[in-house]
Amino acid sequence: MAFTMHSHSGQFCPGHAKDDLEAVIQHAISLGYTTMGLTEHMPRTQREDLYPEELDDPEASLAVLFPRHEAYLAEAQRLQAKYASQIALLIGFEGEWLRPAYAPLITQLAAHPSIDYFIGSLHHVNAIPIDYDAAYYARALASVVPPSPQSSDGNGEERMYERYYDEQYSMLQSLNPRVVGHFDLIRLLSTNPNHNIRAWPGVWERVRRNLHYVASYGGWLECNSSALRKGLAEPYPCRVIAEEWLRMGGKFTLSDDSHGIAQLGTNYARALDFLSGLGVTSVWTLQRDANPHPHPQSHQYSQPGEVKKATLTEREVPIEDVRAVVGKW
What we know:
Layout: E1 2-4, E2 7-8, H1 21-31, E3 33-41, H2 58-82, E4 88-96, H3 103-110, E5 117-121, E6 124-125, E7 128-129, H4 134-144, H5 157-175, E8 179-180, H6 201-217, E9 220-224, H7 226-229, H8 239-247, E10 251-255, E11 258-259, H9 268-277, E12 282-288, E13 312-318, H10 319-326
């Protein structure tokens, strides 16, 4: 079986992704996916948290985010029922940890009865995007270490990494996400994405602290293949972090972090080879009980408290079972 625990569509993630959600699901079925986690981005609440493509009319951009999330939940449940005989759809969202003030909102969104899980993600340092483009990354870096000719820390990226993992730790402690998204996203636009972070004692100490915390509550790290399509040599997380995670007994799930049809399953063969090279023989996903939600025609999707959440069980999937599907693509 093949699966992903992290995906997006252009319908509910405009500007970042492509294609309607139903078309994405249909393509996943055609590839042989048997489980798919739907994880559109959660709504943001502040004007300063908008992306450049949303700033032409910021008030309108903010106003549409929560209705779009509600529409996503309704459509996800409709498709979950429609394609139940062909694919197991898990409904989730990607949490946006811009600052601690977002914790109550993420908790509230996660409580909705249709939500099976959410991904705990960090795309920002000091509320400035670190994966959007080089200019934003430079702004985030300057917010941590203002440029100074007297600086002995080069470009200051060591401090930047420390800040990233401290903010990640705050997110982990507040939310205990079942899936931790792209654990080391900070390296995407860094000067040297292949830098051995064990050479930075303060960074490595924070990485180990965060991994230990995730292991303590039974969370999973995703092996996220999107790093490979973005030009990095290894998936998220990189080898040294993955090795440390495995030493702690940690489990991996598998994600393509697709933003449309074209990216479904991209570089899965390389991601599986990476995991096999670490000695990983299985990845993990979730299995849900029979759909407890109202009938699709009842229009009761967005009424928390009316139905119970689905029961979820962890499912171990041998890597070779995934490889058997990927090999047909």
